[in-house]
Amino acid sequence: MQTTPALALGVVLIGGMMIAFQAPINAMLGRGLGSALGAAAVSFLVGTVALVALVLLRGEGGAFLRIDDIRPWLLIGGALGAFYVWAALWAVPVLGALTTMSAVIFGQLLAALVIDHFGLLGLPVREIGLTRIAAAALVAAGLVLSRY
């Protein structure tokens, strides 16, 4: 399949919509289990099973055999995702879905500005300019407006 910017944007938009549903669903799971941390673990377990099944169905199981070839610090991504899942499901009942997702997006933008500016993690350097700061500021304004 040819990957184009339009296709990538569409897939990411759908992914973002799924994240907006994921947090309140996981919050309901947490209430049902009586544990936000337990709900995050169950959510990750279900996601892990689904991903392993997809890897195997696509015939890419050999990827698991190459795990010894990667730098160990690259495995931290799972822990970062686990923290996000827990934080979002914990915050949704307190802040609501819109404010929680606005805060998530603003946090992502702040980190992305730093990553781009310094070219971290092998990405090309993209300077922080006035338009990029304005974009983040508009999301910050939306975060404030979503709450007050």
UniProtKB/TrEMBL annotation:
InterPro entries: YdcZ (IPR006750). Signal peptide: none annotated. GO terms for cellular component: plasma membrane. The chain crosses the membrane at residues 6-25, 37-58, 70-92, 104-123, 129-146. The keyword Metal-binding does not apply. Keywords: Membrane, Transmembrane, Transmembrane helix. This is Transporter family-2 protein. It comes from Pontibaca methylaminivorans.
